[in-house]
Amino acid sequence: MRPLLSVLPVLALLGLGAAPAHAIRANIAIQPVSRMDTPWWHQRFAEKQAAIAHGRFDVVWLGDSITQNWERNGPEAWRDFAPTWQRYYGDRHAINLGFKGDSTCHVLWRLAHGELDFRTPPRLFIVLIGANNFGHVHTDAGLTYPGIVRIVDTIHARFPSSRVLLLGVLPSIRSAWITANTQQLNRTLHDDIGRGRPWLRYMDAGATVERDGAPDRSRFLDPHLTPPDPPLHPTAPAQEAIARMIEPAVADALGDHRH
After folding, report:
1. Per residue in 55-112, pLDDT tens?
2. Most buried among 99, 175, 212, 256, using CB within 10 Å?
3. Alpha-carbon distance 249 to 242, whole Å?
4. Range of 95's domain?
């Protein structure tokens, strides 16, 4: 049975007036949720906090396992991400704040507990989040959208001079429900999230994992795993294509030459 949270209406997004207060309170996508009881997550969070406390960062990648994968080194070509990170971000004082399994609620907790405690304002935040909202958290597009809005607005409230590059949720091959909600969410992000936010740019990088307008299994690493998983995470070459696609926007935000 689908949890009650996934069927609560968000009337404001549908143009039907304000959502009821009880519906807003019940939306887990906008509520900070900790994962500190998960040992590896706790350790990674502590390591990133130490880096934030002692380093200078101009570029912040913020997200889930797709972002965390930038730290992986092969040995297979399909999961050798680190060279692309080094090429595009190695000289840009960048930090990877990707955590496997995180959804919008977990990112909101991280932002409230130290992941915005930079010594100097970063120049650019690159945000890619929402795929896991459609998985274990199971919030639909209408509920996930306010979670993403809250993330970017939280960043801006803390660092009004920083730019935010928001990426749409990447296509995957998991279920018809997830595909429909991914498409709906990205349409809403494209149409609405930039309004009144001149510091934010939205980009849809979905074409990097598609062929003829549909997700291409060969551009996902999950089928290579043992046992295989449903296609969700781009291979290293597909993720390099994402970095290449967004590079003009990154360079523009940083006032930098294109890498």
Report:
1. 999 999 999 999 999 999 999 999 999 999 999 999 999 999 999 999 999 999 999 9
2. 99
3. 12
4. 33-254
Instruction: Report the Cα 175 to chain-centroid distance in Å.
Output: 20
Mean pLDDT of 21-49: 89
For the segment 126-179, what is each residue's pLDDT rounded down to a tens digit? 999 999 999 989 999 999 999 999 999 999 999 999 999 999 999 999 999 999
Helix count and strand count (H, E) for the chain? 8, 7
Residue 218 lies in a domain: yes
Strand partners, 234: 220
If 0-12 CB within 10 Å is exposed, 13-18 middle and 19+ buried, where does residue 239 land?
A: buried
Distances (CA, A) of 229 to 59, 173, 180: 31, 10, 20
Q: What is the bridge-based pairing of β-strands 214-215 and 210-211?
A: antiparallel
Closest CA to 58 of 205, 165, 189: 165
From CA 61, how far away is CA 167, in angstroms rounded? 11
Residues 207-232 pLDDT 10s: 999 999 999 999 999 999 999 999 99
Phi-psi region of 152 (alpha: psi -120 to 50; beta: other; left: phi over 0): alpha
Q: The domain that contains 204 carries what CATH number? A: 3.40.50.1110
Structural element, H or E, at residue 94:
strand 94-98
Handedness of CA 164, 165, 168, 171 (dihedral sign): negative
| Structural domain contains residue 119 | yes
**Is 95 inside a domain boundary?**
yes
In a domain, 20, yes or no: no
Contact predicate 58/122, CB 8 Å: yes
